[in-house]
Sequence to fold (434 residues):
Amino acid sequence: MASVVVVGTQWGDEGKGKIVDLLTRYADFVVRFQGGNNAGHTLVVDGKQYIFHIIPSGILYKDKTCVIGNGVIIDPGVLLKEMANLAEKGMAVTPRQLLISANAHLIMPYHQCLDVARENALAKGKKIGTTGRGIGPCYMDKVGRVGMKVGDLLDMSLFTDKLQAAVEDKNFILTRQFGAQPLDYAAILDQFEAHAAQLSPFIGNVSVALDQARKAGKNILFEGAQGTQLDIDHGTYPFVTSSNTIAGNACIGSGFGPVHIDEVIGILKAYTTRVGEGPFPTELPEGDGIGDILQQKGHEYGATTGRRRRCGWFDAVVANDAVRLNGLTGFAVTKLDVLSGLKKLKIATGYRVEGVPYGYMPDNIRKARMAEPVYEEMDGWGTELPGIRSYEDLPAQAKDYLKRLEDLTGVAPAIVSVGPDREETLLLRNPFSG
Ligand code: GDP
Ligand code: IMO
Ligand code: MG
Fold:
Protein backbone atom coordinates (compact mmCIF):
# COMPACT_ATOMS: atom_id res chain seq x y z
CA MET A 1 0.00 0.00 0.00
CA ALA A 2 1.43 3.44 -0.90
CA SER A 3 0.42 7.01 -1.59
CA VAL A 4 2.36 8.74 -4.35
CA VAL A 5 2.19 12.40 -5.37
CA VAL A 6 3.11 13.46 -8.91
CA VAL A 7 3.89 17.14 -9.47
CA GLY A 8 5.27 19.33 -12.23
CA THR A 9 8.73 20.68 -11.44
CA GLN A 10 8.96 23.51 -13.98
CA TRP A 11 6.29 25.77 -15.55
CA GLY A 12 3.76 23.03 -16.36
CA ASP A 13 3.36 20.73 -19.37
CA GLU A 14 6.19 18.47 -18.21
CA GLY A 15 4.25 15.33 -19.19
CA LYS A 16 2.31 14.76 -15.96
CA GLY A 17 -0.66 13.25 -17.81
CA LYS A 18 1.48 10.63 -19.49
CA ILE A 19 3.23 9.61 -16.26
CA VAL A 20 0.00 9.58 -14.23
CA ASP A 21 -1.63 7.35 -16.87
CA LEU A 22 1.38 5.03 -16.70
CA LEU A 23 1.40 4.85 -12.88
CA THR A 24 -2.39 4.40 -12.67
CA ARG A 25 -1.74 0.77 -13.57
CA TYR A 26 -0.41 0.32 -10.02
CA ALA A 27 -2.94 2.60 -8.27
CA ASP A 28 -6.53 2.17 -7.10
CA PHE A 29 -7.37 5.88 -6.78
CA VAL A 30 -6.18 8.85 -8.86
CA VAL A 31 -6.77 12.25 -7.25
CA ARG A 32 -6.62 15.78 -8.70
CA PHE A 33 -6.10 18.23 -5.82
CA GLN A 34 -5.72 21.75 -7.30
CA GLY A 35 -6.13 23.86 -10.39
CA GLY A 36 -8.94 23.57 -12.87
CA ASN A 37 -9.31 23.36 -16.61
CA ASN A 38 -6.30 25.61 -17.07
CA ALA A 39 -4.55 22.21 -17.06
CA GLY A 40 -4.21 20.17 -20.24
CA HIS A 41 -2.87 16.67 -19.63
CA THR A 42 -2.10 14.56 -22.68
CA LEU A 43 -2.14 10.76 -22.78
CA VAL A 44 -1.25 8.62 -25.76
CA VAL A 45 -2.34 5.00 -25.62
CA ASP A 46 -1.87 2.70 -28.62
CA GLY A 47 -1.26 5.73 -30.79
CA LYS A 48 -4.55 7.40 -29.74
CA GLN A 49 -4.30 10.82 -28.07
CA TYR A 50 -6.55 11.97 -25.20
CA ILE A 51 -6.37 15.40 -23.54
CA PHE A 52 -7.95 15.86 -20.10
CA HIS A 53 -8.44 19.26 -18.52
CA ILE A 54 -10.37 18.36 -15.41
CA ILE A 55 -10.96 14.60 -15.25
CA PRO A 56 -7.97 12.83 -13.62
CA SER A 57 -5.62 11.14 -16.06
CA GLY A 58 -6.43 7.68 -14.62
CA ILE A 59 -9.86 7.61 -16.27
CA LEU A 60 -8.86 5.29 -19.13
CA TYR A 61 -8.64 2.40 -16.63
CA LYS A 62 -12.20 1.18 -16.00
CA ASP A 63 -11.49 -0.44 -12.63
CA LYS A 64 -9.92 2.60 -10.92
CA THR A 65 -11.58 5.45 -9.04
CA CYS A 66 -10.81 8.97 -10.17
CA VAL A 67 -11.29 11.70 -7.61
CA ILE A 68 -11.61 15.47 -7.91
CA GLY A 69 -10.61 16.93 -4.56
CA ASN A 70 -11.79 20.01 -2.70
CA GLY A 71 -8.77 22.04 -3.88
CA VAL A 72 -9.83 21.78 -7.52
CA ILE A 73 -12.08 24.36 -9.15
CA ILE A 74 -14.58 22.93 -11.59
CA ASP A 75 -16.24 24.36 -14.67
CA PRO A 76 -19.17 21.92 -14.80
CA GLY A 77 -19.79 22.52 -18.52
CA VAL A 78 -16.19 21.50 -19.30
CA LEU A 79 -16.37 18.47 -17.00
CA LEU A 80 -19.62 17.26 -18.57
CA LYS A 81 -18.19 17.75 -22.06
CA GLU A 82 -15.17 15.61 -21.16
CA MET A 83 -17.53 12.96 -19.80
CA ALA A 84 -19.63 13.13 -22.99
CA ASN A 85 -16.50 12.76 -25.17
CA LEU A 86 -15.52 9.64 -23.23
CA ALA A 87 -19.07 8.26 -23.53
CA GLU A 88 -18.92 8.76 -27.31
CA LYS A 89 -15.80 6.60 -27.35
CA GLY A 90 -17.64 3.86 -25.43
CA MET A 91 -16.12 4.83 -22.08
CA ALA A 92 -19.08 6.36 -20.23
CA VAL A 93 -17.99 7.48 -16.75
CA THR A 94 -19.99 5.95 -13.88
CA PRO A 95 -20.27 7.24 -10.28
CA ARG A 96 -18.11 4.26 -9.23
CA GLN A 97 -15.35 5.65 -11.42
CA LEU A 98 -15.56 9.32 -10.51
CA LEU A 99 -16.03 11.05 -7.15
CA ILE A 100 -16.23 14.85 -6.92
CA SER A 101 -15.73 16.69 -3.64
CA ALA A 102 -18.75 18.65 -2.41
CA ASN A 103 -16.19 21.18 -1.14
CA ALA A 104 -14.65 21.89 -4.55
CA HIS A 105 -15.58 25.31 -5.92
CA LEU A 106 -17.42 26.01 -9.15
CA ILE A 107 -16.01 28.14 -11.93
CA MET A 108 -18.99 30.30 -12.87
CA PRO A 109 -19.55 32.09 -16.19
CA TYR A 110 -18.73 35.44 -14.54
CA HIS A 111 -15.32 34.12 -13.43
CA GLN A 112 -14.37 33.50 -17.02
CA CYS A 113 -15.65 36.94 -18.11
CA LEU A 114 -13.68 38.61 -15.32
CA ASP A 115 -10.49 36.67 -16.14
CA VAL A 116 -10.64 37.81 -19.76
CA ALA A 117 -11.68 41.40 -18.89
CA ARG A 118 -8.84 41.76 -16.35
CA GLU A 119 -6.21 40.41 -18.73
CA ASN A 120 -7.44 42.69 -21.52
CA ALA A 121 -7.28 45.70 -19.22
CA LEU A 122 -3.64 45.07 -18.25
CA ALA A 123 -0.92 46.95 -20.09
CA LYS A 124 1.67 45.11 -22.19
CA GLY A 125 4.39 43.81 -19.89
CA LYS A 126 1.88 43.49 -17.03
CA LYS A 127 -0.29 40.78 -18.63
CA ILE A 128 0.03 37.32 -17.06
CA GLY A 129 -1.08 35.45 -20.15
CA THR A 130 -3.70 33.43 -18.26
CA THR A 131 -5.57 30.61 -19.93
CA GLY A 132 -8.76 32.71 -19.73
CA ARG A 133 -10.60 29.89 -17.94
CA GLY A 134 -11.66 31.94 -14.90
CA ILE A 135 -9.05 30.44 -12.57
CA GLY A 136 -7.89 33.60 -10.75
CA PRO A 137 -11.39 35.06 -10.18
CA CYS A 138 -12.75 31.69 -8.96
CA TYR A 139 -9.98 31.23 -6.39
CA MET A 140 -10.43 34.89 -5.37
CA ASP A 141 -14.08 34.18 -4.55
CA LYS A 142 -13.13 31.02 -2.65
CA VAL A 143 -10.66 32.88 -0.45
CA GLY A 144 -13.06 35.84 -0.22
CA ARG A 145 -15.69 33.43 1.16
CA VAL A 146 -18.25 34.18 -1.54
CA GLY A 147 -17.59 31.15 -3.78
CA MET A 148 -20.16 28.72 -5.15
CA LYS A 149 -19.40 25.15 -4.08
CA VAL A 150 -20.10 21.90 -5.90
CA GLY A 151 -22.11 20.81 -2.85
CA ASP A 152 -24.41 23.82 -3.37
CA LEU A 153 -25.70 22.01 -6.47
CA LEU A 154 -27.34 19.51 -4.09
CA ASP A 155 -29.30 22.30 -2.38
CA MET A 156 -30.87 24.48 -5.06
CA SER A 157 -32.47 26.93 -2.62
CA LEU A 158 -29.04 27.69 -1.15
CA PHE A 159 -27.54 27.78 -4.65
CA THR A 160 -30.19 30.23 -5.91
CA ASP A 161 -29.68 32.55 -2.97
CA LYS A 162 -25.92 32.66 -3.38
CA LEU A 163 -26.10 32.98 -7.16
CA GLN A 164 -28.41 35.98 -7.02
CA ALA A 165 -26.01 37.92 -4.79
CA ALA A 166 -22.98 36.84 -6.83
CA VAL A 167 -24.41 37.83 -10.22
CA GLU A 168 -25.46 41.23 -8.87
CA ASP A 169 -21.97 41.82 -7.48
CA LYS A 170 -20.11 40.60 -10.56
CA ASN A 171 -22.36 42.48 -13.00
CA PHE A 172 -21.52 45.68 -11.12
CA ILE A 173 -17.79 45.04 -11.65
CA LEU A 174 -18.16 43.82 -15.22
CA THR A 175 -20.22 46.81 -16.35
CA ARG A 176 -18.80 49.64 -14.20
CA GLN A 177 -15.14 48.68 -14.07
CA PHE A 178 -14.64 46.96 -17.40
CA GLY A 179 -17.48 48.31 -19.55
CA ALA A 180 -18.46 44.70 -20.34
CA GLN A 181 -21.93 43.22 -20.88
CA PRO A 182 -23.83 42.08 -17.74
CA LEU A 183 -24.67 38.38 -17.38
CA ASP A 184 -28.21 37.04 -17.22
CA TYR A 185 -28.99 35.51 -13.83
CA ALA A 186 -31.92 33.41 -15.09
CA ALA A 187 -29.87 31.88 -17.91
CA ILE A 188 -27.08 30.91 -15.50
CA LEU A 189 -29.58 29.38 -13.10
CA ASP A 190 -31.16 27.29 -15.89
CA GLN A 191 -27.77 26.09 -17.03
CA PHE A 192 -26.67 25.12 -13.52
CA GLU A 193 -29.95 23.36 -12.72
CA ALA A 194 -29.20 21.10 -15.67
CA HIS A 195 -25.60 20.61 -14.53
CA ALA A 196 -26.82 19.76 -11.00
CA ALA A 197 -29.09 17.01 -12.31
CA GLN A 198 -26.22 15.42 -14.23
CA LEU A 199 -23.51 15.77 -11.59
CA SER A 200 -25.42 14.96 -8.37
CA PRO A 201 -24.64 11.20 -8.42
CA PHE A 202 -20.90 11.93 -8.51
CA ILE A 203 -20.72 14.33 -5.55
CA GLY A 204 -19.50 13.15 -2.15
CA ASN A 205 -16.94 13.47 0.66
CA VAL A 206 -13.47 12.92 -0.78
CA SER A 207 -11.57 13.03 2.52
CA VAL A 208 -13.72 10.24 3.97
CA ALA A 209 -13.40 8.14 0.80
CA LEU A 210 -9.59 8.47 0.71
CA ASP A 211 -9.33 7.65 4.41
CA GLN A 212 -11.35 4.47 3.88
CA ALA A 213 -9.24 3.61 0.84
CA ARG A 214 -5.99 4.03 2.76
CA LYS A 215 -7.25 1.94 5.67
CA ALA A 216 -8.27 -0.76 3.20
CA GLY A 217 -4.69 -0.87 1.88
CA LYS A 218 -5.38 0.82 -1.46
CA ASN A 219 -2.75 2.60 -3.54
CA ILE A 220 -3.47 6.29 -4.05
CA LEU A 221 -1.94 8.47 -6.77
CA PHE A 222 -2.20 12.27 -6.52
CA GLU A 223 -2.03 14.12 -9.84
CA GLY A 224 -0.67 17.66 -9.67
CA ALA A 225 -1.49 20.26 -12.29
CA GLN A 226 0.66 23.18 -13.50
CA GLY A 227 4.21 23.23 -12.11
CA THR A 228 6.32 24.33 -9.15
CA GLN A 229 7.33 27.70 -10.66
CA LEU A 230 3.63 28.49 -11.21
CA ASP A 231 2.83 28.04 -7.49
CA ILE A 232 0.98 31.04 -6.04
CA ASP A 233 3.38 31.25 -3.05
CA HIS A 234 6.65 29.88 -4.38
CA GLY A 235 6.54 30.63 -8.11
CA THR A 236 7.53 33.64 -10.19
CA TYR A 237 4.74 35.82 -8.72
CA PRO A 238 2.68 37.46 -10.18
CA PHE A 239 3.32 35.34 -13.30
CA VAL A 240 1.83 32.26 -11.66
CA THR A 241 -1.49 30.49 -11.37
CA SER A 242 -3.82 31.05 -8.40
CA SER A 243 -3.31 27.78 -6.53
CA ASN A 244 -0.52 26.00 -4.69
CA THR A 245 0.87 23.56 -7.19
CA ILE A 246 3.46 21.93 -4.92
CA ALA A 247 3.15 18.53 -3.24
CA GLY A 248 2.02 19.93 0.15
CA ASN A 249 -1.27 20.86 -1.45
CA ALA A 250 -2.03 17.21 -2.30
CA CYS A 251 -3.02 16.90 1.37
CA ILE A 252 -4.91 20.19 1.70
CA GLY A 253 -6.63 19.82 -1.66
CA SER A 254 -8.03 16.38 -0.85
CA GLY A 255 -8.24 16.17 2.95
CA PHE A 256 -5.47 13.57 3.33
CA GLY A 257 -2.93 13.55 6.18
CA PRO A 258 0.68 14.44 5.25
CA VAL A 259 2.21 11.53 7.19
CA HIS A 260 0.51 9.12 4.79
CA ILE A 261 2.40 10.32 1.70
CA ASP A 262 5.18 7.86 0.80
CA GLU A 263 6.70 9.25 -2.39
CA VAL A 264 6.75 12.51 -4.34
CA ILE A 265 7.70 12.15 -7.98
CA GLY A 266 8.65 15.32 -9.86
CA ILE A 267 7.97 15.36 -13.58
CA LEU A 268 11.00 16.94 -15.19
CA LYS A 269 11.13 17.76 -18.88
CA ALA A 270 14.67 17.19 -20.21
CA TYR A 271 14.63 20.86 -21.32
CA THR A 272 12.38 23.73 -20.20
CA THR A 273 9.16 25.27 -21.53
CA ARG A 274 6.81 27.98 -20.41
CA VAL A 275 3.43 29.23 -21.78
CA GLY A 276 2.28 32.74 -20.98
CA GLU A 277 4.31 35.63 -19.64
CA GLY A 278 6.97 35.81 -16.94
CA PRO A 279 10.68 35.21 -16.30
CA PHE A 280 12.38 32.27 -18.00
CA PRO A 281 16.16 32.52 -17.52
CA THR A 282 17.21 29.71 -19.91
CA GLU A 283 14.80 30.73 -22.69
CA LEU A 284 15.99 30.42 -26.28
CA PRO A 285 13.81 33.10 -27.89
CA GLU A 286 11.74 32.50 -31.03
CA GLY A 287 14.09 32.63 -34.00
CA ASP A 288 16.93 30.98 -32.05
CA GLY A 289 17.81 27.85 -34.04
CA ILE A 290 17.90 25.47 -31.08
CA GLY A 291 14.82 26.91 -29.38
CA ASP A 292 12.90 26.40 -32.62
CA ILE A 293 14.14 22.81 -32.93
CA LEU A 294 12.95 22.02 -29.38
CA GLN A 295 9.63 23.72 -30.08
CA GLN A 296 9.01 21.84 -33.31
CA LYS A 297 10.43 18.45 -32.40
CA GLY A 298 8.73 18.58 -29.00
CA HIS A 299 5.41 19.81 -30.54
CA GLU A 300 5.45 22.52 -27.90
CA TYR A 301 1.98 23.98 -28.29
CA GLY A 302 -0.31 24.37 -25.26
CA ALA A 303 -2.73 21.46 -24.73
CA THR A 304 -5.32 23.93 -23.39
CA THR A 305 -4.98 27.15 -25.39
CA GLY A 306 -2.90 25.98 -28.37
CA ARG A 307 -0.39 28.76 -27.69
CA ARG A 308 3.23 28.29 -28.75
CA ARG A 309 5.27 27.27 -25.74
CA ARG A 310 8.49 29.17 -25.10
CA CYS A 311 11.46 26.75 -25.04
CA GLY A 312 14.89 26.75 -23.42
CA TRP A 313 17.73 24.71 -21.97
CA PHE A 314 17.44 22.53 -18.89
CA ASP A 315 17.61 24.60 -15.72
CA ALA A 316 19.05 22.90 -12.63
CA VAL A 317 18.15 25.93 -10.49
CA VAL A 318 14.48 25.32 -11.27
CA ALA A 319 14.93 21.57 -10.71
CA ASN A 320 16.57 22.17 -7.32
CA ASP A 321 13.79 24.55 -6.28
CA ALA A 322 11.37 21.71 -7.08
CA VAL A 323 13.40 19.18 -5.09
CA ARG A 324 13.30 21.45 -2.04
CA LEU A 325 9.72 22.73 -2.30
CA ASN A 326 8.14 19.34 -2.99
CA GLY A 327 10.47 17.04 -1.05
CA LEU A 328 10.99 14.98 -4.20
CA THR A 329 11.93 11.32 -3.81
CA GLY A 330 12.34 10.69 -7.53
CA PHE A 331 12.11 12.22 -10.97
CA ALA A 332 10.27 11.17 -14.08
CA VAL A 333 12.44 12.67 -16.82
CA THR A 334 10.32 13.23 -19.92
CA LYS A 335 10.96 14.12 -23.57
CA LEU A 336 14.57 12.95 -23.50
CA ASP A 337 13.97 11.87 -27.13
CA VAL A 338 13.47 15.51 -28.17
CA LEU A 339 17.15 16.26 -27.44
CA SER A 340 18.40 13.57 -29.87
CA GLY A 341 20.41 15.05 -32.72
CA LEU A 342 21.67 18.15 -30.90
CA LYS A 343 25.47 18.16 -30.96
CA LYS A 344 25.91 20.06 -27.68
CA LEU A 345 23.51 20.38 -24.74
CA LYS A 346 23.58 23.16 -22.21
CA ILE A 347 22.53 22.94 -18.57
CA ALA A 348 22.12 25.98 -16.32
CA THR A 349 23.79 25.17 -13.01
CA GLY A 350 23.22 28.58 -11.38
CA TYR A 351 22.29 32.21 -12.08
CA ARG A 352 24.01 35.53 -11.74
CA VAL A 353 21.95 38.59 -10.91
CA GLU A 354 23.84 41.88 -11.13
CA GLY A 355 27.01 39.85 -10.62
CA VAL A 356 25.69 38.03 -7.52
CA PRO A 357 25.48 34.21 -7.76
CA TYR A 358 22.07 32.61 -7.09
CA GLY A 359 21.29 28.92 -6.54
CA TYR A 360 17.53 29.46 -6.41
CA MET A 361 14.94 31.52 -8.30
CA PRO A 362 15.18 35.08 -6.93
CA ASP A 363 12.06 36.03 -4.93
CA ASN A 364 12.11 39.51 -6.39
CA ILE A 365 10.44 39.48 -9.82
CA ARG A 366 12.73 42.20 -11.19
CA LYS A 367 15.75 40.12 -10.20
CA ALA A 368 14.18 36.93 -11.57
CA ARG A 369 13.81 38.70 -14.93
CA MET A 370 17.48 39.70 -14.85
CA ALA A 371 18.80 36.24 -13.88
CA GLU A 372 21.58 35.20 -16.26
CA PRO A 373 22.15 31.47 -16.42
CA VAL A 374 25.60 30.03 -15.80
CA TYR A 375 25.89 27.17 -18.28
CA GLU A 376 27.91 24.04 -18.57
CA GLU A 377 27.99 22.07 -21.82
CA MET A 378 27.69 18.37 -22.52
CA ASP A 379 27.90 16.23 -25.63
CA GLY A 380 24.61 15.27 -27.24
CA TRP A 381 23.73 12.00 -28.98
CA GLY A 382 22.56 11.16 -32.47
CA THR A 383 20.40 8.07 -31.94
CA GLU A 384 16.63 8.59 -31.87
CA LEU A 385 15.24 7.17 -28.60
CA PRO A 386 11.55 6.20 -28.99
CA GLY A 387 12.32 2.54 -29.78
CA ILE A 388 14.46 2.11 -26.67
CA ARG A 389 12.88 0.18 -23.78
CA SER A 390 15.74 -0.30 -21.31
CA TYR A 391 18.12 2.08 -19.59
CA GLU A 392 21.11 0.00 -20.71
CA ASP A 393 20.22 0.58 -24.36
CA LEU A 394 20.32 4.39 -24.07
CA PRO A 395 23.30 6.04 -25.81
CA ALA A 396 26.22 6.69 -23.41
CA GLN A 397 25.77 10.49 -23.73
CA ALA A 398 22.07 10.22 -22.79
CA LYS A 399 23.04 8.24 -19.69
CA ASP A 400 25.69 10.88 -18.89
CA TYR A 401 23.04 13.60 -19.25
CA LEU A 402 20.67 11.78 -16.84
CA LYS A 403 23.55 11.18 -14.42
CA ARG A 404 24.43 14.88 -14.52
CA LEU A 405 20.82 15.84 -13.70
CA GLU A 406 20.98 13.44 -10.77
CA ASP A 407 24.34 14.79 -9.54
CA LEU A 408 23.13 18.39 -9.78
CA THR A 409 19.91 17.72 -7.85
CA GLY A 410 20.65 14.77 -5.57
CA VAL A 411 17.52 13.02 -6.87
CA ALA A 412 17.60 9.99 -9.18
CA PRO A 413 15.21 9.37 -12.07
CA ALA A 414 12.64 6.67 -11.30
CA ILE A 415 11.16 6.92 -14.78
CA VAL A 416 12.58 8.01 -18.14
CA SER A 417 10.19 8.83 -20.96
CA VAL A 418 11.37 8.59 -24.57
CA GLY A 419 8.13 9.29 -26.46
CA PRO A 420 4.49 10.33 -25.88
CA ASP A 421 3.02 6.81 -25.89
CA ARG A 422 2.36 4.93 -22.66
CA GLU A 423 4.73 2.22 -23.90
CA GLU A 424 7.60 4.63 -24.67
CA THR A 425 8.81 4.60 -21.09
CA LEU A 426 11.62 3.12 -18.99
CA LEU A 427 10.42 2.31 -15.47
CA LEU A 428 13.63 2.19 -13.42
CA ARG A 429 11.94 2.14 -10.00
CA ASN A 430 8.24 1.77 -9.28
CA PRO A 431 7.28 4.36 -6.64
CA PHE A 432 4.38 2.14 -5.53
CA SER A 433 6.76 -0.62 -4.54
CA GLY A 434 9.40 1.61 -2.89
P1 GDP B 1 1.14 17.92 -18.74
O1 GDP B 1 0.32 19.16 -18.71
O2 GDP B 1 2.27 17.95 -17.78
O3 GDP B 1 0.33 16.66 -18.62
O4 GDP B 1 1.82 17.88 -20.19
P2 GDP B 1 1.08 18.20 -21.60
O5 GDP B 1 0.23 17.05 -21.95
O6 GDP B 1 0.49 19.55 -21.59
O7 GDP B 1 2.35 18.30 -22.56
C1 GDP B 1 3.26 17.27 -22.69
C2 GDP B 1 3.32 16.88 -24.17
O8 GDP B 1 4.45 16.06 -24.39
C3 GDP B 1 2.13 16.05 -24.63
O9 GDP B 1 1.89 16.32 -25.97
C4 GDP B 1 2.61 14.62 -24.45
O10 GDP B 1 1.97 13.70 -25.32
C5 GDP B 1 4.06 14.76 -24.84
N1 GDP B 1 4.99 13.84 -24.18
C6 GDP B 1 5.00 13.35 -22.91
N2 GDP B 1 6.11 12.62 -22.68
C7 GDP B 1 6.83 12.65 -23.82
C8 GDP B 1 8.10 12.12 -24.20
O11 GDP B 1 8.81 11.48 -23.43
N3 GDP B 1 8.52 12.39 -25.48
C9 GDP B 1 7.78 13.12 -26.35
N4 GDP B 1 8.28 13.32 -27.57
N5 GDP B 1 6.59 13.63 -26.03
C10 GDP B 1 6.14 13.42 -24.78
P1 IMO C 1 -0.71 21.82 -16.93
O1 IMO C 1 -1.41 21.15 -15.78
C1 IMO C 1 1.33 25.38 -18.40
C2 IMO C 1 -0.07 29.26 -16.90
C3 IMO C 1 -0.75 30.15 -17.90
C4 IMO C 1 -0.36 31.52 -17.35
C5 IMO C 1 -0.42 31.29 -15.84
C6 IMO C 1 -1.71 31.73 -15.18
O2 IMO C 1 -1.20 21.43 -18.26
O3 IMO C 1 0.76 21.72 -16.77
P2 IMO C 1 -4.19 30.74 -15.15
O4 IMO C 1 -5.15 30.49 -16.27
O5 IMO C 1 -3.85 29.51 -14.36
O6 IMO C 1 -4.59 31.88 -14.27
O7 IMO C 1 -2.82 31.23 -15.90
O8 IMO C 1 -0.24 29.89 -15.65
N1 IMO C 1 -0.65 27.90 -16.80
C7 IMO C 1 -0.09 26.80 -17.30
N2 IMO C 1 1.02 26.65 -18.06
N3 IMO C 1 0.62 24.31 -18.03
C8 IMO C 1 -0.48 24.42 -17.25
O9 IMO C 1 -1.15 23.37 -16.76
C9 IMO C 1 -0.91 25.72 -16.89
N4 IMO C 1 -1.94 26.22 -16.17
C10 IMO C 1 -1.76 27.54 -16.11
O10 IMO C 1 -0.24 29.97 -19.21
O11 IMO C 1 0.97 31.82 -17.68
MG1 MG D 1 -0.39 20.64 -19.98
About this structure: The domain at 268-433 is CATH 3.90.170.10 (Adenylosuccinate Synthetase; Chain A, domain 3). Residues 12-13, 39-41, 303 surround magnesium ion (ligand 3) (CB under 6 Å). The longest helix spans residues 156-177. The first strand starts at residue 3 and ends at 8.
